Amino acid sequence: MPRFSSQAPSRAITLRLLHLWRIVMLCATITHEREHPALAILILVPLNHLLFNVTAGLDQAGIGPATRSNTRPWGVRAARVLAVYVLATSALVWWYGSFDALSADLRAFSATWEWWVLVFTMVVLTVLYRPLMAALRHLVGVTGLKDARLWSALGLAVAVWVWCDGVFAAVYQQLSLLCGGAGGSLCQGERTFSQSLVRFVDAAYFSTITLSTAGYGDIVPLSDLAKILVSVEIIMGFGLLGFLLSRVAGFTATAPPNAGKIARSGPRPPPTHEEGDPPDAA
Q1: Are 61 and 74 in contact (CB under 8 A)?
Q2: Residue 193: helix, strand or coil by DSSP?
Q3: What are the tens digits of pLDDT across the range 127-165?
Q4: Are 34 and 114 in contact (CB under 8 A)?
Q5: CB–CB of 44/30 below 8 Å?
Q6: What are the tens digits of pLDDT across the range 178-227?
Q7: Measured distance CA(232)–CA(240) in Å, rounded
Q8: Rounded CA gap, 123 and 50, in Å?
Q9: Residue 102 CB neighbour total at 10 angstroms
Q10: Which residue blocks in the chain are alpha helix, DSSP H?
Q11: pTM above 0.85, yes or no
């Protein structure tokens, strides 16, 4: 116990220094991206929350269930957190070009009112980020999104979708190649698409927007054969989309609404009889 008490002040000082380091990096990043504040803030809020949790985790040894991360020695965990901070700082300095440019820009921007508006906005969004993430974690738990069967089904459906996309792209490319040359009776001397799809990239792009029913209208089928193929692909796209939604809805419907409560409460003990009450008949 005396040894732990002697280490507590040094650990507290280390945590405060790491949090100060995190705030400095946050301010420097905001300064660099002040021309795009909305995008910078939306990206920095979750990253700031991640660094905060990693740093605060150093002060939570022995709290909660024992895991591989919180049973390691404090020095090992602190070294890993320090490595994350060094990596983030190195990336920030590389982004600026030099440490001198970073410090000069930070001093200049901190004297303006825009600096304090961005800092205040960051603080407010950081506070709101916690309940938002808690709500998302609850949603993931009650909807069964942690079930591996759901993701395997979605992965299979996406693989089938990509395969169909590639097959139709290859068909469109071959049709464009045939009708660009001597297509004979297949093309009947008419253009197949409004834009040539002899490149597979163009054919894959057209197949993707067709299968997803986006329909930008930049490439349209012109011949009867091309229109038939596009119609078939659109119908298949609706079928695959329905399959994906049905799988998600099926797994969501089978998740018990009180699964989290049952897991937290644990198994109930068998009922006991009060003194003087006769036991139930066998």
Answers
A1: yes
A2: strand
A3: 777 787 788 788 877 776 777 777 777 787 788 889 989
A4: yes
A5: yes
A6: 887 655 566 766 788 888 899 999 999 999 999 888 878 889 998 888 89
A7: 12
A8: 14
A9: 20
A10: 2-32, 37-56, 74-96, 99-109, 113-142, 148-180, 200-211, 224-254, 259-265
A11: no
